[in-house]
């Protein structure tokens, strides 16, 4: 906790870490459902990230397939993140796909695989040390710059709560760092931890859904997310997508799986399940 606070204070003093560019303006696009008789304006959404996005992406496509002008481009890759560009270089892959597909919105879900040594950088100490966090911060800034260079809007998603320690604590620290970096660089950030946690922020494997049934929201490995769990994630993600499309309110085709409890968030973690315009972060 103290290391995280020290790092964030240090980053605040080092203005050179911030992205000077202004965020892309919200898209002035109109979404229409099939059969409405309106010529749709195509809106391309690039879905990037690790295996969590590999699970969420196709399900999101099915849930929103009634919107005739939405095109999803899923390029998720399991076991990836920002720490190991030698295994999978997300900045390079992102740059190539931004140029190829010209998306209007990019959703990136990474972080779960990142509590490890950052490839090509020596002397950082253990993962989540102050030096490590500064290096990871710069990895995030690199992603921000690529998306902004192509005039797209970025929505970053933080890693979910985990059952296993010390992984859960490490991902909580990464969530704080991601949230701080997004806030101070005018980027949307979705904190996924409270979505799949109980009211005290602890790992939740099963949840009571709106229809009264109890279902698994995490898989047997206690890492990945089930279809019911992804519906909960989409319930919180769609307002962020809607926020980039003024006057629009995206809704899932399936809306039955909702917690009866209220997500109260996790103490000490910045970010929430309610989107705020990046401009408000100045």
Q: What key phrases describe this protein's structure?
A:
Rossmann fold; 5-stranded parallel β-sheet; alpha/beta; 282 residues; two-stranded antiparallel ribbon; globular; 6 helices
Concise structural overview:
With 282 residues, the protein is of the alpha/beta class. Helices cover 32% and strands 11% of the residues.
Write structural notes for this entry.
By secondary structure, the chain is α/β, with parallel strands linked by helices. It has helices spanning 2-13, 51-63, 90-101, 130-149, 167-183, 227-243, and strands at 43-49, 70-74, 105-109, 153-157, 188-190, 206-208, 214-216. The protein contains 6 helices and 7 strands, in the order αβαβαβαβαβββα.
* Coarse morphology: globular
Overall SS class: alpha/beta
Q: Unreliable stretches, pLDDT < 50, 5 or more residues? A: 13-39, 255-274, 276-282
Order of helices and strands: HEHEHEHEHEEEH
Helical stretch tally: 6
Integer average pLDDT? 81
Please give the domain count.
Answer: 1
Name the beta content range.
5-15%
**CATH-derived architecture:** 3-Layer(aba) Sandwich
CATH superfamily: SGNH hydrolase
How many β-strands, per DSSP?
7
The neighbouring-strand order within the major sheet is: 2-1-3-4-5
CATH class: Alpha Beta
Main beta sheet strand tally, sense and closure: 5 strands, parallel
Helix content: 25-40%
CATH topology: Rossmann fold
Rounded Rg: 18 Å
How widely separated are the two ends? Answer: 25 Å
């Amino acid at each position: 906790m103290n290391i995280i606070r020290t790092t964030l204070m240090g980053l605040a003093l080092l203005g050179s870490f911030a992205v000077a560019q202004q965020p892309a303006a919200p898209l002035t696009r109109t979404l229409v459902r099939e059969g409405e008789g309106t010529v749709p304006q195509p809106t391309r959404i690039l879905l990037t990230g690790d295996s969590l996005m590999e699970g969420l992406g196709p399900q999101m496509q099915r849930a929103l397939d009634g919107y005739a002008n939405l095109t999803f481009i899923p390029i998720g890759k399991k076991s990836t993140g920002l720490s190991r560009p030698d295994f999978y270089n997300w900045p390079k892959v992102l740059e190539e796909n931004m140029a190829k597909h010209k998306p209007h919105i990019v959703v990136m879900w990474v972080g779960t695989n990142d509590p490890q040594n950052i490839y090509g950088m020596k002397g950082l100490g253990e993962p989540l040390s102050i030096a490590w966090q500064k290096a990871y911060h710069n990895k995030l800034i690199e992603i921000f710059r690529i998306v902004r260079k192509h005039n797209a809007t970025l929505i970053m998603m933080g890693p979910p709560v985990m059952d296993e320690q010390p992984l859960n604590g490490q991902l909580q620290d990464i969530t704080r760092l991601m949230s701080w970096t997004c806030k101070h660089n005018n980027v949307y950030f979705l904190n996924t931890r409270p979505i799949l946690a109980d009211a005290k922020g602890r790992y939740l494997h099963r949840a009571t859904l709106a229809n009264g049934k109890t279902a698994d929201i995490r898989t047997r490995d206690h890492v990945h997310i089930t279809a019911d769990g992804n519906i909960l994630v989409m319930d919180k993600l769609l307002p962020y997508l809607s926020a980039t499309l003024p006057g629009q309110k995206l809704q899932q085709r399936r809306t039955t799986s909702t917690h009866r409890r209220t997500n109260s968030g996790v103490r000490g973690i910045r970010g929430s399940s309610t989107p705020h315009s990046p401009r408000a972060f100045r």
